[in-house]
Design goal:
2 domains; disordered N terminus; 7-stranded mixed sheet; Glycosyltransferase
Length: 518
């Protein structure tokens, strides 16, 4: 969850003395994730001249709870208990320290890494006078999962509290409208079930409801942000045919497809293509198992490689104690990823000394933004496959596209219609009709792009077009800022400007009259 607390905000610097508090609850601290989005918003808002404060939940002494909320290998009951404690603490912090004429900007995903605030929390915030703008991501991307009913139920309970809602794809927007049309809303503050006709209005302090405002009118559809660049940065035209995989190293992130492709490249004896795996290892059992799978497949024991995973296993066994002792989940994750780097470095040293044949995979764990940029410019292709399609991996894909990579992804029912309904000759990326591609298909796709210069250049031209228009980083950011401004009392601002204009006109008229007087 990302929250931007702001007294006043405007992309055009209409307001003075702007103060903004950005705070993140539990999400992965990675270049593709929500914490990076908060940091980019912080930078951009500072560049607009706003005073910004950034606060994270673990800085309120909640490192252990954040760790539990992020751990994808624990039961949901554990996740929810941690989220509740985080929500209670954040609520107390807001009510006691944040001015009431403030907009809260919340990024939430339900249920797992999700939303710390319940309807009880939100009703207290609304009663206190705060306005709330929500960025809702992945609402509709898990339609086949058992948690769908619970996900929709929770979302339905929260929607009435939001003054403005942002989605990154039309499917999520449609899903929210469907959810709102089929669920009853319940307001905890007055134990009153809202009538369906009022389901899309906001409950205000007092007895009266505001003028009807449909959810359709309150939802703003904004392209997903690029998180690691301020502008489109395609890099050099001449670059190696390397392949880059970017994102959290954990299950369901294309591990099998990547390993199969690497094995095929080795079998075919293609020395000019390396696969660069870039990202952070998720510091839980799922992340560990995925990392271990990558390492053992890349540096197989049967060829004499020896990898020691015991330090990582000990860290996981002592996770809660270590996080509590460190008082920072960041410190724990950094130590965990440092151990992962050491394992990879040791295995690479074994390659140098013993010269056994490893798969053509390079590991780049927990890299800086500048290093990520360099790695992208040292590659030509990006691969990102997921059953959830573009809507879930939008930020990851846009990041790779932002540095000039030709991204190969998959068509799904969740694909952004901007691309899904686009003629093939206008596509800025390559889409395959499968969620689990065979290595041969990936290899052939890359080979075709390598040999067909015109086709490759067409994709690059389309890529430049969308990255300098629809997905231009600053354009997307300014759209988010405008939505926040919309959630403020714009009418008062317009009235104030009109009053100032009238005052200016009056002064000018008086000056003119004085000049005409004898």
């Amino acid at each position: 969850m990302i929250i931007i607390y702001t007294i006043q905000i405007s992309p055009a610097n209409y307001f003075d003395d702007v103060k903004i508090l950005i705070t993140t609850a539990p999400f992965e601290a990675e270049n593709t994730g929500d914490i990076s989005y908060a940091r980019q918003m912080e930078r951009c808002l500072r560049n607009l001249g706003h005073e910004v404060i950034y606060l994270r939940a673990q800085e309120l002494g909640l490192a252990v709870e954040v760790s539990k909320a992020l751990d994808t290998s624990v039961r949901l009951s554990v996740t929810y208990a941690a989220l509740k404690k985080i929500g209670d603490s954040l609520l107390h912090c807001i009510l006691t320290t944040i001015p009431k004429d403030t907009v809260l900007f919340m990024h939430f995903r339900i249920p797992h890494t999700g939303f710390s605030f319940s309807t009880k929390h939100l009703s207290q915030l609304k009663a206190a006078g705060y306005k709330i703008c929500a960025l809702i991501n992945e609402h509709s991307c898990n339609r086949e999962e058992p948690t769908e009913i619970e996900r929709n139920y929770q979302t339905a309970q929260l929607i009435p509290f939001f003054d403005q809602i942002i989605t990154f794809n039309p499917i999520d927007k449609a899903g929210l409208l469907e959810t709102a049309g089929t669920k009853n809303f319940y307001h905890c503050a007055d134990n009153k079930t809202l009538a369906k006709s009022n389901a899309w209005t906001l409950f205000q302090v007092g007895n009266a409801y505001p003028e009807p405002s449909s959810l359709e009118e309150r939802i703003s559809l904004i392209p997903a942000p690029i998180l690691s660049a301020q502008k489109y940065d395609p890099g050099p035209e001449e670059r190696p045919d390397n392949i880059l995989m970017f994102g959290t190293i954990r299950r369901n992130k294309g591990n099998t497809a990547t390993l199969n492709l690497a094995q095929l490249l080795a079998d075919k004896g293609v020395p000019t293509i390396q696969i660069k795996i870039v990202g952070k290892v998720l510091a839980d059992m799922n992340g560990f198992n995925s990392f271990r799978q990558y390492v053992l497949s890349t540096f197989p024991e049967r060829l004499g490689f020896c990898a020691d995973f015991k330090p990582l296993e000990r860290m996981l066994a002592e996770k809660e104690h270590r996080v509590e002792k460190l008082s920072s989940l960041d410190d724990y994750e950094n130590e965990f990823n440092s151990l992962c780097k050491e394992i990879v470095s040791d295995l690479e040293l074994q390659v140098t000394k013993k010269r056994p044949k490893a798969l053509p995979i390079e590991f780049h764990i927990d890299v800086s933004e500048e290093s990520f940029r360099t790695l992208c410019h040292q590659s030509r292709y990006g691969i990102k496959f997921d059953k959830k399609g573009f809507c879930d991996n939008a930020s990851t894909i846009i990041n790779m596209m932002g540095f000039g990579l030709i991204v190969i992804s998959n068509k799904t029912h969740m694909m952004n219609p901007v691309f899904n309904l686009c003629p093939e000759e206008e596509l800025p990326l390559v889409l395959l009709d499968t969620m689990d591609p065979e290595a041969e298909l990936l290899f052939q796709t890359i080979l075709n792009l390598k040999e067909d210069t015109l086709a490759r250049q067409r994709v690059l031209n389309n890529l430049e077009r969308v990255m300098t228009t629809m997905y231009d980083p600053m354009r997307v950011t300014s759209q988010v800022v405008r939505v926040l401004e919309k959630a403020l009392n714009v009418e008062c601002h317009a009235k104030k400007i009109a009053q100032e204009d009238d005052k200016t006109d009056q002064t000018e008229n008086e000056s003119s009259s004085n000049r005409k007087s004898p």
